[in-house]
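Structure in, sequence out. Go:
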């Protein structure tokens, strides 16, 4: 890895420390210290799309302070390819995960202002050509949900955890089928803006000076409902948990005329993604038991599935 970074970015590193956050099994991330003391986040991934680097570069150059800009390579590119995966650098943000610390009222307001600033940016033609209109992950969710339902209905579980997983899934099979049906056809498109597509608190870092939104791998060109669904309930501790938090976010964001049809679609698509991917990870790992617990929360009375189908 150090040799790659020196060759591709012209930076010599003295330490590389592997870090793990979130559920992105397609990515590896390191905290790296260069000769001279500067720190960077190194990401090596096969997930998401290349639009992520173009979007973050554009937003940072436009003056959106809460979006870290990628470091360019020695040839001026935004990433390189190593062993079939993209290698990129950004400045290391020495901040706390908002999912671990929560946000104060002022920070919720700042978060709303940051997302509003992202959504308000003009979209140049080059980004319109690069950004997908839908999260690419969503395209494979109906098939994955079908495979999982078939497995749980017809195969004996391999261990006690999978037995509990199968019981949980089959008890909610009707809800899963309803999510698949609701996401079969995208709604009529509304005005499209740059969307992060995953702006929960696990992707927010807080420092004394600034709140940052990171991990733009799934950025899309979509209506605002794609992002704002995360602020309207069903996300547990990864979104606002009180009406005061939600009010503070929208005080920073400003007025938002949400289309109910689009909101239902994007909520349903996210709910199906959470159900299918957490169930899959409860089978394959890592963190099988934790994945099952998260799935049960998503399917629970306060989870996103209920919100999406209500």
């Amino acid at each position: 890895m150090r040799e790659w970074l020196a060759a591709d970015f012209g930076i010599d590193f003295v330490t590389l420390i592997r870090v793990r956050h979130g559920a992105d099994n397609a990515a590896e991330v390191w905290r790296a210290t260069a000769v001279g003391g500067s720190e960077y986040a190194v990401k090596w991934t096969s997930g998401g799309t290349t639009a992520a680097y173009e979007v973050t570069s554009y937003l940072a150059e436009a003056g959106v302070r809460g979006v870290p800009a990628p470091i360019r390579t020695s040839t001026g590119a935004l990433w390189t390819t190593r062993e079939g995966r993209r290698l990129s650098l950004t400045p290391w943000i020495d901040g706390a995960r908002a999912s671990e610390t929560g946000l104060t009222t002022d920070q919720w307001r700042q978060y709303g202002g940051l997302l509003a600033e992202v959504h308000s940016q003009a979209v140049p033609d080059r980004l319109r050509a690069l950004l997908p209109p839908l999260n690419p992950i969503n395209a494979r969710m109906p098939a994955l949900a079908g495979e999982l339902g078939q497995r749980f209905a017809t195969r004996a579980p391999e261990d006690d955890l999978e037995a509990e997983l199968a019981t949980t899934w089959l008890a909610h099979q009707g809800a899963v089928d309803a999510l698949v049906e609701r996401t079969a056809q995208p709604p009529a498109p509304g005005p499209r803006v740059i969307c992060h597509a995953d702006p929960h608190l696990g992707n927010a870092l807080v420092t004394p000076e600034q709140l940052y939104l990171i991990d733009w791998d799934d950025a899309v060109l979509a209506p605002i409902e794609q992002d704002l669904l995360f602020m309207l309930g069903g996300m547990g501790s990864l979104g606002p948990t009180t009406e005061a938090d939600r009010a503070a976010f929208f005080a920073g964001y400003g007025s938002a005329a949400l289309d109910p049809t689009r909101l239902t679609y994007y909520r349903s698509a996210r709910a199906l993604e959470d159900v299918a991917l957490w169930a899959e990870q409860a089978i394959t790992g890592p963190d099988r038991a934790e994945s099952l617990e998260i799935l049960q929360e998503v399917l629970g009375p306060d989870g996103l599935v209920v919100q999406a189908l209500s």
